[in-house]
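Budget justification note: compute hours in this period were largely spent on complex prediction jobs such as the one shown. Inputs:
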Amino acid sequence: MTQPGKADAAADVLAGGDTRGDGPRRRAGAGPRRGAPLPLLLPALVGLAFLLLPLVALLVRAPWAGLPEQLTSPEVWQALQLSLITATAATAVSLVLGVPLAWLLARTDFPGRGFVRALVTLPLVLPPVVGGVALLLALGRNGVVGQWLESAFGITLPFTTAGVVVAEAFVAMPFLVISVEGTLRAADPRYEEAAMTLGASRFTAFRRVTLPLIAPGIAAGSVLAWARALGEFGATITFAGNFPGRTQTMPLAVYLALQSDPAAAIALSLVLLAVSIAVLAGLRDRWMTAAS
Amino acid sequence: MTDTPRAAGEEGPGPDKGYAPESGPGSDSDADSGSGSGPDSGSGSDKGLDARLVVHRGSFHLDVALTAAPGDVVALLGPNGAGKTTALRALAGLTPLSEGGRLRLDGAALDRTPTESRPVGVVFQDYLLFPHLSALDNVAFGPRCQGVPKARARAQAAAWLDRMGLADHAGAKPRRLSGGQAQRVALARALAIRPRLLLLDEPLAALDARTRLEVRAQLRRHLADFEAVAVLVTHDPLDAMVLADRLVVVEHGRVVQEGTPSDIARHPRTDYIAQLVGLNLYRGQAEGHTVRLDAGPEITTTEDLGGPVFVAFPPSAVTLHRDRPTGSSARNLWQCRVGGLETHGDQIRADLTGELPLAADLTTVAAAELDLRPGAPVWATVKAAQTHAYPA
Amino acid sequence: MTRSARRTHRTRPLQVAAVGAAALLALSACSSSDDPGSDSTKSDASASSSPKLSGTVTVFAAASLKESFTALGKEFEKEHPGTKVTFSFGGSDTLAASITGGAPADVFAAASPKTMAIVTDKGDAVGTPSTFVRNQLEIATLPGNPDKVASLKDLTKSGLKVVLCDKTVPCGAAAQKALDASSLKLTPVSYEQDVKSALTKVELKEADAAVVYKTDVKAAGDKVEGVEFPESAKAINDYPITLLKDAPNAAAAKAFIELVQSAEGQKALTAAGFLQP
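Corresponding output:
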């Protein structure tokens, strides 16, 4: 029972490529390891160094002596807590809105779909501060939609924690949409058809078949979105302002600390860094490997 | 597999009783149709499948009429691109019918019924078992979608897997199943929704030769037990002939021939079918025992016919000679040239060109004695008794 | 640092142009009136710099100086053909950090003595910096002042959305000083990272009022309305300017500082809303 040597296992999962085959799962990598060619290895290592060097510098120059004092300050914990809550909420918003949007882009055909896809990625290229101003113009007290939100529901978003979530979701959601859409495109749409022949509505097919199939893509997209939301600065401070405990997230605290006390700023950066690494590493182990 | 139970008959197997009401979607639509929902099945003309599958897509046009009584197994046979899979998708509702198409199942019109509401089960070519679900949950998926409580759906699924001889693999994920096992899970999954129409798309194509033999025999038993209409699509004549009661041959989106496997094997009407069943086939005008072939020469047959006819004979009926045979009783004698040679089992198949293009089978020894090689001139004779003429 | 620079660029180019044009008009009016009778300032400048000035003068200046300094730079280039003035506007503390980090600058004009001290403490300045202008706080309200804000105390009214600068930046520190001096407790909706973004919130009508500098209110034109308040006298910001030790073009830099401190320079700066020292 020879299987055609198809892509790697991850792609298999996404495409549901291999539903048969009783032979040993072919994992080409199990054989003797081959050395990476130099033209790949060299730039790869330079790239790694390039990414890690600023972090190393941060560690080297960190005011280790003052660190305990920083870490016990209630303001830092307040900002950290707010950062974690808003980033998670923004990721949740992105999931609820972004996954259906990705499905729409990947699985339906409508005029101007390519254009819509380009629009979705707009927040990626927009300077975050511009995004914040755009959000103010849209959802602010006098915004296009915002004034209606206020008159009809009494909802104002600027200067509120909800505003932070909105700003972070605005910047982070494209990462999720792009990631999920890519996974959806790679997944075999015929699984949805198979589910429909079994009596599943299109939504049930999506929920019970497609969603589990693209779970790795959703997980990857969520992690990206979460990380982006956690580090968000420009859109947040522009749209939601800066008030400790309400809208002052860690990046804002870091930036403002940098104005008066660079050592404190470094300490705060380290805290943010440590927490995000811990969370990302934890999730990666849980989600990314669960797929295979 | 001697105890293979009836798939979904009125006398369901033991485990099915008590928890599985005989009210699958099939039975529902049965009742909806309001006609002959009693056990006297088969008597009403509106039982079973009555469809005209019309699909226009770009330059491709499909127009296939298909009828079948409950219990029938119909095979759609045709070359790649003939429109078989499109026909199957139209039956399942995955491709909409175009103007002029219609689809009735057990008296109920299904044209406008969405896929998920049709009492139609499908076994896909590569099975499409949901990779994240166990075999059991794959089979339970359909009943769950129909609102059967989880525990009961799983019990039903377990019974189906048991019938397929897969009780030991209920917990396995599809990737752990062999090709044959996956095929049976796919069949169980399609049958678990108690369909009134079972569709199988190239059910054996994904299997290797050895597994195929075994699975084909199993599938034949399961299909024989299935009491509603089964339609399978295949490009393999052997699969079609073994599994189906009736063949519908489709070429270029049209039905070119229809009948029992033996009828089609004996009376091919297109080159494609003739090639599938391994016959030399010619069209011509009959006048008594002589048929003037459209291809040129005349041929003498045993049948006494008039008007347009087909003449067919197997390659093994052809005898080749190095020199023009003298005193031969064969009246059908043509001068040919060897176009190509290939081994065909323990025989040599010679493709001849010339007066009449034909295929001839001969033993390796005979081929050597005749010193056959491409381009060599030969004389071919066919005894009239071995030809078969029938009205076109 | 790029962030604050970008923010500054973004702010209302129309207003910038308008103010710049106004300042230029004032300047050219000066010089044209100076022209006929051989004028003191000009001859002074040319006399003090015996060799002919040339090359590029690099000026690091606080963001609030952008409009007036840009106009003065143009004037300087006109007076000294062959010279070119390039500016780097930004937050004073960021600029100070660049200078101590070795950025090649000739002149540093800061928005507070505190930020200037960063440079002088490192010994990067020549001599003692001198205060060339002062900036006073003002309340920026929505056009027409719909909330009838008349004093600093009025800002503490509940329901009023007020933004302040963060205490870590000079305008925030000054506002806090004014509030403390009058024993007022004000809870804003946001502590903005710089004066321009505080003003933007009012311009976009997201906030009802902000405590910013007079110069900012002026630059914003009719998008905001300024309300002076007496407590601002207790929190006036001095703007020091200095020649830098490693100045690549010290001669021209000196001439530029002289221009800033001259009558012409002061006229341009007061036109932008600054107070004379």
